[in-house]
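Discussion board: Methods & Data

I've been asked by a reviewer to show the raw model output for two of the constructs in my manuscript, not just the figures. I'm not sure how much to include, so I'm pasting the format here to get opinions. Each protein appears as its amino acid sequence followed by a line of discrete structure tokens. Is this the kind of thing reviewers expect to see in a supplement, or should I convert it first? Here is construct A:
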Amino acid sequence: MKITSVQAPSMLRPLTCVASVLLAGALSLGCVASAEGDWERETVGEAADELSAWYAWYHGTTDNSVGVNLDPTPDEATCVLSGVAGNLSVGSSWFQGHQSAAFVRWQSGQWNFIAHGGAYTDNLNHTSWEGNPVNGHATCFYYTANVKNATWDSQPAHLGVAPPVKIAELSTTAGSTRQCFLSGVLGVHEVWDTTRFARVVKKTSTDANHPTTGWYVEGNMPDSSNDGSHAAVMGRCVDFPSDRTFTSGQVIGTAAGTPTTITSGSGVKGCALTEISGVFNQNSWTDGALITAPSTLNGNWTISVSNNKSARWACVE
């Protein structure tokens, strides 16, 4: 299940790996060489009676801004971020530039998964990719009820940290439980060179930064001091049946990024990220926080978090 063929930061051809478990329980795993939109969407659908399937995709590149389309459609599943590694401290959001990014967006009726390094605009007004790697993992849950999206954007450092952005209320319908996940992280020049965080949080009481209860997406990155480019954090919520079992936790990184098992038992589970924290400025495909899906439908999920980083996760069974 590991992406073992994309270790060198100088990789010129992006590699995509997919691991999907469908209702029949068969696992497919493959890697193929592979060469940004209306990512936000709200849906109202029905929640399945039980978690009977999940879909996971691993995708890492230095310069592929097109991304890959995931098999489940937004009418079938809700896809979110389950891992990010590499260098998020390169890039620009202006003109022909690109932020270093890992995110899952809705585009033209499909889930589109982007993971690439940063780029700047050169003196000929062309895109100049910097070659830094970004590796992303995505998980799709086969639930589509009341999907909500929001994006937090950084602001100039002299204005302080930009306030949290509300994604959704705590819950909207009887018999359902809302869970939110990260759906994207975008970085620019030097903003992840010191310890930063990107997260979704559930607030059951109010405070100065969260004036109403609900789910919020937030970060603490400033705009780039180089050109004022914006960093961003994306969050996505979906309603699950209230009889599902939810677990969550935090993993502190180790120097070796040793995998930690985060689920147990034989039921079908699915997991994704709710927070990453630390310094993300290494040209590495594995330096980060990466949740890995099991090799069987009802197997257990693991997370690998590198040194000086931490991650929070949530799983649904």
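Construct B, same format:
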Amino acid sequence: MSHIAVKTLRYISELTGAVPSDVLIGGSGARVIRLRSSRSDGDDFALKFLSEHDRVVDGHDLPSFRRKIIRQHRLARDLPGVYEPIAMEGHGDDHSWFVTRWIAGSELLTARRFAPPSPSATIMESLPQILNSLAVLYSRECVPGHAEYVREVYLGRVSRRLSYLLEGLRGTIGRDDVLSCCGSVIGSPAEVLQLIPATRGSWIPQCLYYPVHGDLNSSNLLLVDSCDRSFRLIDPGSSERAKDLLYDLGKLVFSVSFFDLLRRRPVVFRTAVNKGSGRLSISMSIEEGWRRVAAHDTCELHRALNSAAGYQRLLDREGAWERALVFVVACHALAESACRLSHARICAEEGRDMLSSALACLAYGGHLLLRHMETADGAPSSVFDAAVEFLTLCRGG
């Protein structure tokens, strides 16, 4: 940690009487430190700290982090019992931090922390009720969707981040290099960029809802009581604008089906670049136990979604939402590929291979985008089937 982070941690510890313990590594450059109370009846606290870094991708920079703090204040006020209020915060020229009470709960995919991993059955059983509760929260606001929404929220973001990615991967992969993953041809980055505008008219959300979260990955949904299915949300996105229903759902599908594997467990990637032939071949191997659990949990998420009647009523307003969800998850994966590369320098000291993670997200997003385009004139493709198909390609030892 930086000098200012250590100084901040000492200051918070003196104020609260809590002792720093775990430093949690998440999906961004921010760090979360748990401070444990020295009293048996005292509260633990969570400190989240971000220092400014050069050339960090949009959404993970310091201004976005500060907007997230403002948003957390609003969400704690609007949705009491779902978000913890901020107890204290601080800002400097090149850093910001905030503190909340530590939430003692289970992440959605807690069972994957162990070796060998096991399916996340307990929380998946609670998920239909959680999704129904989320549907009520989303319905606090409902405004009509519009034709420019997809361009503003999805297409512009993905194009911007892929351009960042290609700049960062210069010398590794070019715009016209053909990318293949485990024998399946994805196409070149230039072709992927061309596919994105072609999807513009394929889906217009019927409704835009209250922005309950904005970054609903598996680590940001905590089950605090398995008996009454109560839950808490942490670490929301920084945007205040109303969102389509598939935005958060797509984040959850991406996390359960693939991204969690990159964050929880070293996934083995082998990359070979044929510089003279204009091809980049990625050989991706996921340990078989982890691959099976990811495929199982992806199917369980699908079943939970089908069982959530309240959430389904909102989805039914969208018409052909199944095919749109393939597009949404593809966009999240492609956008995340730039985030992985963005944090390569920050995470190098932690031994995380962010380049391989970036290429993996690019391959997964490209795979889903192709499935989305292939079904343009046919039956809707299930993102859950497409995800399991990709995991099957990644059979390892």
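Answer (T.O., handling editor elsewhere):
This is acceptable in a supplement if you add a one-line summary per construct. For B, something like: The mean pLDDT is 83.
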